[in-house]
Design goal:
alpha/beta; five-stranded mixed beta sheet; two-stranded antiparallel ribbon; 14 helices; about 40% helix
Length: about 400
């Protein structure tokens, strides 16, 4: 539910593996493959926020999800969240970005009595939160077709393929107002955090963003209790990823370390039709719109069947992608690997010997308990990164005279 991706399509990679096995069982008794197109309900992106409409937009071909051949195509396109070329040297550290804002002020128009007054004036001015599909140093300015380098890498230099994929991406952004999603109020932030446990834990030793997800604990019953939908959850992921790659880590070549915690997963649970639908739509959205964002993907607390499925799909993956995916079982070896890859940002609750916090509820329901003070932050669901993102969301809500929706757990 990576992402977000790789960005965040890492968790989606696991969801696809799970869903595929279920589909294999049902395909045997089917005479023809269904050709449903997986859609996200269109959202009318007004200044007042997200309002679900009745129109639907197909944004990935049904051939990618309707048959075994389609599954292979989807897996090859996703590649575990990686889209860099095999022969390229993998990025191991995110580039430092100079994001300073030069402000020219005329002494004839503005007279400041002190530096404090200037700071207060700057803070009171609205911030530009419109982020387009291209940015400085992403290769689009130098490209004859305006295509960012990551999209050419995704298609292994196939210019026509990259152009088509990027145009589809631009249409998707326009349909869902992705460029301005951070400007709009997001009252269901806390609700979505509870529906699907995910968080930015901090940064790894290479300064890459760490994104943790628990795909086994997507709670569809809680979703209904809070009048929410899969569409709401998918748009929330877009919000989170847009925040990540535009505010938290805006470098065009920035990458992340994904941790997919399979704790609590069961075959029965993952055969749920809603879960499979969400997994397919999630991985389609992320692989089609956020390519080339993966550094490593750690699948931890992995059940035996994950290893079985991975062996089936391993031959379809590039060697560079195989090197990115690490599957671990709970125990000392897994703890050692987590300490190595995550460093000081390793959350205690990911350790096999970690003790659950007293205020944490059962992992099958809510464990996202937001803190209100920065001093309460610690690596994990309430990292400083998560605190800052939630504060950002609250500030945007305040500008629209709205507040966070309370989560109904009864």
């Amino acid at each position: 539910m990576t992402p977000l991706a790789a960005q965040s399509s890492s968790a989606g990679f696991v969801l696809v593996l799970t869903a595929l096995l279920i589909d294999c069982l049902t395909l045997a008794s089917a005479n023809t493959a269904q050709h449903d197109v997986y859609r996200i309900t269109s959202a009318h992106t007004t200044r007042r926020g997200w309002h679900n409409g009745r129109r639907n937009l197909p944004f990935i071909s049904s051939s990618a999800v309707s048959s075994l051949v389609g599954w292979e195509e989807l897996m090859l396109n996703t590649r575990g969240g990686s889209t860099v070329e095999d022969d390229e040297e993998e990025q191991t550290a995110a580039a430092d970005v100079d994001n300073e804002l030069d402000v020219e002020e005329s002494s004839d128009d503005i007279i400041s009595s002190s530096n404090e007054t200037v700071d207060e004036t700057e803070e009171s001015q609205p911030r530009n939160l419109t982020f387009t599909a291209t940015c400085r140093n992403d290769g689009s300015a130098e490209d004859p077709d305006g295509i960012p380098t990551r999209w050419l890498d995704m298609k292994k230099g196939d210019r026509e393929g990259a152009k088509e994929a990027f145009e589809t991406h631009l249409a998707w952004r326009k349909e869902f107002g992705v460029d301005t999603i951070l400007e709009r109020p997001h009252p269901k932030f806390d609700v979505c955090k509870q529906l699907a446990p995910h968080y930015f834990a901090g940064r790894d030793p290479h300064n890459n963003v760490i994104f943790v997800q628990r795909p086994a604990h997507v709670d569809f019953e809680l979703m209904r209790m809070n009048n929410s939908t899969i569409d709401d959850l998918l748009l929330h992921y877009v919000y989170v990823i847009q925040y990540c790659w535009n505010i938290m880590e805006p470098a065009p070549d920035a990458i992340m370390t994904n941790v997919v915690d399979m704790r609590g997963s069961s075959f029965r649970q993952m055969s749920n039709s809603e879960y499979i639908e969400f997994g397919k739509r999630f991985v389609s959205m992320m692989s089609a719109n956020y390519p080339g964002r993966s550094y490593k993907t750690l699948i931890i607390n992995a059940p035996t069947w994950i290893n079985v499925l991975y062996k089936i799909f391993k031959p379809m993956l590039r060697e560079s992608t195989r090197q990115k995916i690490i599957i671990l079982k709970a125990g000392e070896e897994q703890d050692t690997a987590l300490k190595f890859y995550l460093g000081d940002s390793l959350p205690d609750d990911l350790l096999s010997n970690g003790k659950p916090k007293k205020d944490k509820r059962d992992m099958g329901t809510r464990y996202y308990m937001p803190v209100e003070e920065r001093e309460q932050c610690a690596p994990g669901p309430n990292s400083e990164v998560e605190f800052e993102m939630r504060e950002f969301c609250k500030q945007q809500l305040a500008l629209h005279n709205e507040t966070l929706q309370e989560v109904n757990t009864i």
